[in-house]
Design goal:
By secondary structure, this protein is of the alpha+beta class. The chain has helices at about 15-35, 45-50, 80-90, 135-145, 165-170, 200, 215-220, 275-285, 295-300, 330-340, 345-350, 375, 385-400, 415-435, 445-455, 470-475, 490-505, 505-525; strands at about 55, 60-65, 95, 105, 110-115, 115-120, 180-185, 185-190, 235-240, 245-250, 265-270, 290, 305-320, 355-360, 410-415, 440-445, 460-465, 525-540, 545, 545-550, 555, 560. The protein contains 18 helices and 22 strands.
Amino acid sequence: MKSPITSDDSFTRSAGRQLARYAFIAVAVLVALMYSLNFVAGLTSTGAGGAAGAVDVENNEISIYLREEPPQMNSMLATDAVSGMVLGHVMEGLLRYDENDQIVPGMAERWEINGTRATFHIRENARWSNGDPLTAHDFEFAWKTALDPATGSQYAFIFYPILNAEAANTGQMPLDSVGVRALDDHTLEVDLAQPIAYFDKLVAFVTFQPVQEAFFNATNGRYGADADEMLYNGPFMMTSWVHGASLRMVKNPYYWDAERIRLDGINAAYITSDSNTLLNLYKDERIAVVDLTAEMLEGAMQQKWQLDRFMDGSVFFVDFNHREGRVTGNLNLRKAMFLAQDGNELVDRVIKLPGYLPAKSLFPVWLQGVEKTFREEYPAPESPYNVALAREHLERAKQELGLSEIPPLVMLADTSPVATISSQYYQEVFKRNLGLDIIIDAQTFQQRLAKMDSGDFDIVLSGWGPDYNDPLTFADLYASWNLNNRGRYNNPVLDSHVRVAQTSTDTKTRMDAFGEIQRILHEDVAYIGNYERGRVYATHPQVKGVIRRVFGAEYDYTGAYIETAD
């Protein structure tokens, strides 16, 4: 899910260049300061050579951390970036992204997409991690199982371009009517409801990964629950998973392109997002890579670490619960809260990390439009900070709701450092400017997702990263049928524009539809934008070839290797 930036900051595609342009000024100040203070000397050769934890030369493996426990390793049910990162290493779909973020063959050695028919030719040497042949039937089973209403996949909607997929997922037609079928072990044929311009990008996403039916059934509902409850077809396979503590991946000898994989093991030895813990783990050379928060920057500079930066393509926001009976379903209350906060203040004075941008739209700055970026061609509506006007909307909301005071609002958030300071900022600013009481419900990442799914919140700190390289990956987030629309926002006009964007092959028509979606979401205050996320990170000097992606696994170690002295 993340776009690559190499160690010398050369970008491999236009989206990366756009991200660099917006991040450059803020980062340049930091880097200049570091150079002036001689802080970017890098780790000494003694420090690098003594790495027994971060870099294990003898066993050709590295140690990393995960910021959260992967909530869901069943690719048919996974919805989050942490699970997606692990799945991106142990599984592979029909197609994948290469080091330049270009779609290339994966399990399919070749494919043709002609109008409403797509045909994928599975490799003769495609194998599961137990040595079984991987076949087209494994894709048919996985896709139809994800569409089965009984599965409850929140990503079932991503299959809707396939003929009869939506009708089957909503129980109106049988699963056998879905336009995907294995003609034989090596040929998967897909019928589309209409020609679409982005189907090859879709099938690189994790929900399109294969699952072997016999193994799935043998797990008795525990598929993906533990390392031995999965079969793997990707570059690596999990050999252990101590829940909440660590997991280990080793090179998969049955992977069709195993010669490309240079590491023999990836040891996710720590699962934590605590800033002090991560700072010390990297300083003590227990992990090979670390993302830095604002409070970690000073320590990083004191340690003379080489820092890199990256914008990961994600947008973060305050999501409202639009369900019936929730006061946050009131438009004037949402307008009051929108006008009472300042995204620039959140980014510049609270988060204080290079590369972060205020989220002025659900569509981030890097998305491509017709000829320029989408946001250049369809500027985001103005977002004024106006406390006096906010208070007027609050009084209207009280009248419409028949309340003398708005009851305390529960803000759901996870326990990550940025979420913690962001929730505290909103708690303070809504109290100061509107007199609203905000109760912060801080939960682990996995529990936050569960509470979002059940609607157990008034407002929630949320975010969305791109699943594929098309504005539709953001535009359909608030569609009424999308189960990732956790607040259950429902607007038939917005839905109609999403349908246009899904079905049209004309770029200008699609971009006009995205522009209307942007306008509707702003006028209806479906959410409050927080920020587009930037990353500042350090990598062990012996570890090379790590890719940061906008699409796919945010950290991609499939091309990584350990550089040793001659």
